[in-house]
Design a protein that fits this description.
single chain, about 240 residues, alpha+beta, four-stranded antiparallel β-sheet, 4 helices, about 45% strand
Amino acid sequence: MKGLRKKLPRLSRRQRIARNLTLTVLALFLAWAVTGFAPPTDALCARWTAEEYGLSEPEILLRQREENNAGRHYLILRWPDGRLAAQETYRKFGFLRRGGRLLLTEETEGAALLLGECSPEPKALYVWADAPGAVRAECRMRLRGRVAVGYSDEDTGVREDGVFDWDETYILQAVPNENGVYRFAVQPKYDDRERLRQVAEESVLRELGYNLKGEISDGFSAEFTVDFFSVTDNIVKTWRYSMP
C-alpha cells in the first residue's frame, strides 16, 4: 500500500479543488436521479406540471406550507385564460415531488374554489377572487347528505351505529394574500364527547374532498357563500358556488 501511494501523482491545490467539485456535482446528479429528476424549485415544478397537461407556464399565486409538516406544501396556480389549479408538493433529498394529479378548475364570476390540505378530510379550502378593496372574507359552507356510520369503543368493545340526515353550516374566516388567495381553515364542530356525530362529520368532510376532486357522490351537496369585506367592513363582493 505504501508503494502504491508513492506511485500515485501528487495533486496540486487546483486539481484537488476540481476533483472535489466534480465529486459534489456527481453526488447531486445521483440524488436528482434517485428522485426521478424531480424539479428543484416551485417555478420549475409548476412549469413541468403544466407542460404535462399541454398548458402554458402558470403564475404561482400562493405557496402554503402544511401545518406540522414543513416538507409538504401547496401551490395555487393560475393561467391567463382563467383556469386555476391546486398542486400538492413535498420535498425529498432537497427536490420537489408532486403529489396526485393537477386539479384544474375555472373561475366563475371572478372567483374560484380549490381544494387544499386534504388528509383525508379537507383541512383548508382556498378561494381566489378578483375583489378589489377586500381585506377579509367570510365563507358560509353548508354541507348536506345522508350518512350511515358506526364505531366500536376501544375500551368497552361496544359498537354504536347511526344514520344522519346531515345539514350543517360552517362559518370560515380568511384574509387574502397579495394575489387575492384566501385560505379558509376548516374547523370540525364535533369532538370525542359526541363520538358518533364526530365520525359522521369526518365522513361528510371526506365526501366534500372527493367532490372537489371531481368524484361526484350521490346524495351529497355543498353550498358556499363568500362575502368579501372592505376595511370599513362593507361588503364589496358576494360570490356563490354550489356542488354538484
